[in-house]
Specification:
Length: 130
C-alpha cells in the first residue's frame, strides 16, 4: 500500500540540489518509508518551523536501504556488516546526500546533531527517489 509522507529539508547544502534534481537521497530515522511511497518535500521561506513553506517538490520512493546507526558506524544487511564512520562507503553515501564535506564523519555529525547519538544501534533508512 502506497503511503504519502511530508518531510522538510533544513540542511542548507542539500536544499538547492534537492530542488534542481541533483540530490535524490535522504537518510531518515525510523522505518516509515517503502518503495512506491509518495513524498512531498518542502523548505521554509524563513526560519524553519516558524515560517510558511517556501518551496515544494513531490517525488516517488524508488529504493530503500534499511540500516542501523550507532556510535561506531552504520550496519547493513540486518546488522551483519558494519562500516566504521571513516569507511569509504560512508563517503559515497555522504556525497549522494550532499553532506559538506562528503565524509562519513561529517555525515555522522549531521545525523547525530539532528537526532542525537544513539546509545545502541538505531533504525534508519537511506531513501532514494525519482
Amino acid at each position: 500500500m502506497m503511503r504519502k509522507h511530508v518531510i522538510s529539508m533544513t540542511y542548507q547544502p542539500k536544499i538547492e540540489p534537492v530542488q534542481d534534481g541533483r540530490c535524490t537521497q535522504t537518510i531518515r530515522t525510523g522505518r516509515k518509508f517503502s518503495v512506491g511511497d509518495s513524498i512531498l518535500m518542502h523548505g521554509w521561506s524563513g526560519r524553519p518551523y516558524r515560517s510558511p513553506w517556501g518551496w515544494r517538490k513531490r517525488v516517488t520512493v524508488t529504493d530503500i536501504l534499511n540500516i542501523l546507526i550507532s556510535e561506531t558506524g552504520i550496519y547493513v544487511d540486518d546488522g551483519h556488516i558494519v562500516y566504521p564512520w571513516d569507511d569509504d562507503m560512508h563517503n559515497i553515501w555522504a556525497k549522494l546526500d550532499f553532506i559538506d564535506p562528503p565524509t562519513g564523519e561529517a555525515l555522522r555529525d549531521i545525523l547525530f546533531g539532528l537526532n542525537g547519538a544513539p546509545d545502541e544501534p538505531h533504525e534508519y533508512q537511506i531513501i532514494r527517489w525519482s
